[in-house]
Amino acid sequence: MAQPQAQALEATGRPSIDGSELEKAKQAQHVETDAVSTFEDPVEAKKIIRKIDFRLIPLLMFLYTLTFLDRVNIGNARLWNLEKDLHMTGYDYNIVVLVFYIPYILLEIPSNIILNHVTPRYWIGFLTLGWGLSVTFAGFSKSFGGLLASRIFIGVFEAGMFPGCLFLIGSWYRRHELLTRMAWFMVSNDIAGSISGLLGAGLGSLNGLRGYSGWSWIFFVEGAVTCCAAVLAFFYLPPFPEDAQFLKPEEKEWVIRRLKLDEQRRKDNEKMTIGGVIRCIINWKILTSGVLYLAVCVTAYSLSVFQPTVLKTFGWSSLKSNLLTTPVRVVSGIISVCVGIWSDKVQRRGIFCVVGFSISIMGNLLVMLLKNGNLRYMGFYFASIGIYICQPLVIAWCTNQIVGTTKRGTLTAFAISCGQVGGIISAVVFPSKDGPQYVPGISTCIAFQAVGIMAAVNMWACAAWENRQRDMGKRDSRRQLSQDEQDKLGELHPDFRYTL
């Protein structure tokens, strides 16, 4: 039988394969299948996920800690003669805080498009070096205009960092593994907030050393550390799963296969384009992500940038005001990660989002209405805990509701762009003249959090309704489409279920 088969193959113009070669090919395929199937064992699967975790999350956490630290250190620098040295008056400080967000908002989506077409370590390493140099040179500012220019460049380079990291994380994990990783990643906010207060106190105390004020030393040291971090990003940041070299071939195949199964008919090797991004933005889930993250960031940025200033109105010194921002961020970070793990375990998002916004509203009311400094300080704990529960949650929740590289890249960039509008709002609603209660600013935070609750309830209700329709078979007509058309349905496929 082997000879006729070989003759038949030769007749078709294809090379003949003898029995031994065919058997070897079958054995190789069998070995590969066995290697992939071993990872279905929970213990083996966990090892691969941990391997990805350790390679990806700590480095991104470190980079984002520096991102946030370099963004909000202006609040600490203000307490060390910044305005006096640069002859800033009136709203000058608020303008310096605000101008950062303009390039940040405009360049986030273009940055994710670039990231989708190049190796992540090249692009993110370049961005890290760019903003690190900008922060360093900010310490040499001699005028309000010089500081303003440096803040613009910080915004230009930081624009791609946050959405790029979230885009990369979202590419590696299944939907109900995502929030835990995003919560760990965004704990960088709390690490940065904690370190910022300590560094603000420590570096600011170098005031006068070599003729530079304390605010200059804050910028010098933090900017130099960021430049060094760019080298780490360039050499060690992993690529997207399809290009991963730190995994064995069978491990990479297993990771890609489980991602496809999780997202139901995910389109492979999809690249972001301007036209694709424009089409995605009108998706109601992506629009809702923008509203939710805007609601989060008005309060998050207010706490980060203006908390030391508010604490100083309690009659506390600059040193004490900087130091006492640290415990608030530590507690909120721990609780944020715990809630993220809990949410992934029960595969629910909406209830945690609503509760988080509600806790933060209560904390803001305490800060705004009470007179006693210690009780108002307690209010900062509630405000921070609630809002930092919501920050990773809303991004993970909205990412869970979509399928495809273009939608995921558009969502992370669009949501974060909307969040930076919250940074602009926070920059203008906390003028010094409103102290010590800062009623207009805190009222603005509460109003946006109320909007966040409404958006979360809307997402929750719409997702639950659509899941019921699919459970009743009312979307099964889509199964009559061709396989290629079904592959392009994404979250519209009748097998897909939205996260509640």
In short:
With 500 residues, the chain is mostly helical. It has helices at 2-11, 19-38, 42-77, 82-85, 92-99, 101-115, 120-138, 144-158, 161-172, 178-204, 214-236, 249-263, 274-281, 284-312, 318-323, 325-346, 350-369, 373-400, 405-428, 439-471, 483-487. α10 (178-204) runs antiparallel to α11 (214-236).
Question: How many strands?
Answer: 0
Helix content: over 70%
- CATH topology annotation: Growth Hormone, Chain: A
The secondary-structure class comes to: mainly alpha
Number of domains as seen in the coordinates: 1
Taken in chain order, the helices and strands follow as HHHHHHHHHHHHHHHHHHHHH
CA(first)-CA(last) distance:
59 Å
The main sheet comes to: none
In round numbers, the mean pLDDT is 84
Just name the CATH architecture: Up-down Bundle
Q: Give me the Rg, rounded.
A: 26 Å
CATH level 1 class label: Mainly Alpha
Shape: globular
Strand content: under 5%
CATH level-four homologous superfamily name: MFS general substrate transporter like domains
List keywords for this structure.
single chain; 500 residues; mainly alpha; Growth Hormone, Chain: A; 21 helices; globular; membrane
